[in-house]
Amino acid sequence: MSMDEQNPKKTDKTESALEWLARSTGSSIAYSGNVPVDTGDSGIDDNIPKTLSYTNGYAETDPDSKNSYVDLRSPIDGPSPFAYFMDGSRMAWKIAELRYGGKIWPIVAGQIGVACCKRVDRRIVADNASRIYKTILSLPQDICGFSANEPQNQKRIEDCRKAINERLGWNGRNPIDAILTYADKENDKTNLAVSRIQALMVATEKRMIFELAEAGKLSDQEYLIKDGSLEYRDDAISEIKWKNLEGRLQYVVGVSKSFNEDLFEVKIKSQKQSAASFISCLKVNQRTQAFLYEPQGRMTGPKFAVWYVRIRDQRLGQSIFDGVLKVEMHLIGKEQQLGKNTLEINRITEAIIRERNPVCYGADSRWANHIYPVFVTEKYLKSGFLPGHVFRAMTMQGGMI
After folding, report:
1. Residue 351 contacts by C-beta under 8 Å, 6 or more apart in sequence?
2. Residue ranges per domain, the chain?
3. If DSSP states are collapsed to H, E and C, what string results for 206-257?
4. End-to-end distance of the chain based on CA atoms, in angstroms?
């Protein structure tokens, strides 16, 4: 049963998509606008308290128990082990609030994108096949009558998507690729709506990594740098679960430009100290030793080697953490007991330092934490996003601005 059939009032196809949605759900429009919402590019959630530890064993094979920092060789020219660079991004706008059941429910529209570039003969190249975009509408389950476990859920969602696209009428183009729903679980429903869009972006990242590995494109001479954390958690949206990825991350390095250092607690020789203070003491071309990290809530889950490297002097930035990157690698097989080979960690980290040039100074407020190929991939990805004002069309008749 379609949403119009459930609410058998006269259908007017000249009404806006938002007007149709409100009428079909028995709600009313409380607000109609186009407000950017949390348009940051955070990848995996870094707000879960973590403990990085040496106490359960180092995450590298040849640690120096007397020193917490490792001096690296000055970057030299030569072939890089990094061949692929991946970035994911999302943007979101609150386009409306509906009044229903004595509550206000936000309607959030957004875009997700994931792109992968490759280095070929010292040039960063890409093609459209390596860039994926989806335009999303995040709606409340309660208003639309969607139940998470309802068998007919997908058909009803698809009927809703088609009806909205028909009323938008953007020159025959389907602007809404998917509708996601959020449940009433907390007061900040806007965050819930955005989190669903974020989850689809992460699912798309996982799919791209999986396909690169399955195609045999990754090796010890052709690593992938993924912008952000590798701490992928299973969710209902993604068909690629951790068990599908676990054996396919051997040649994937997660590099994070930003991280919440205040939520980390470092244990060294059974003594605790602030990770923020510890990381801030890094010098240029210096890394911390690799910490062992096990995500909380997983008794037999994955283990990661996590370390930090300073690629630029903090005096060039606006914070003590400008110029510091967080690096992650999944520990596979015997590495979970022995740690990742220290020589390989050094090789990878020295190669990351080399990727800091050319410098994108002034092009981005995060320039001090950028490595250039990821910066180029990010620009390539964002060049294909729709402008935010386009989403205001959902509130206007015929989808016209």
Report:
1. 80, 81, 82
2. 3-394
3. HHHHHHHHHCCCCECCEEEEEECCCCCCCCCCCCCCHHHHHHHCCCEEEEEC
4. 31
- β-sheet bridge partners, residue 152: none
237-267: per-residue pLDDT in tens?
Answer: 888 888 888 889 999 999 998 887 776 777 7
Three-state DSSP string of 41-88:
CCCCCCCCCEEEECCCCCCECCCCCCCCEEECCCCCCCCCCEEEEEEE
Tell me the pLDDT band of 28, cut-offs 50, 70 and 90. Answer: very high
Instruction: Report the run of H or E that residue 203 belongs to, with start and end.
Output: helix 189-214
pLDDT of residue 113: 95
- Kindly report the pTM of this predicted structure: 0.87
* Cβ atoms of residues 124 and 166 within 8 Å: no
Q: Torsion over CA of 344, 345, 350 and 354, rounded to 10 degrees?
A: 90
Take residue 85 and report the two structure tokens written for it. Answer: 């660079």
Least confident of 40-54, 123-137, 302-316, 349-363: 40-54
Q: Measured between alpha carbons, how far is 161 from 177 in angstroms, rounded to an integer? A: 8
Q: Are 53 and 211 in contact (CB under 8 A)?
A: no
Identity at 286, one-letter amino acid code: Q
Q: How far apart are CA 195 and CA 190, in angstroms?
A: 9
**Residues 17 and 166 sit within 8 Å (Cβ to Cβ):** no
* Distance separating alpha carbons of residues 283 and 311, to the nearest angstrom: 9
What confidence score (pLDDT) does residue 284 get?
93
Nearest CA to 317 among 257, 357, 382, 377? 257
Whole-angstrom distance, CA of residue 220 vs CA of residue 222: 6
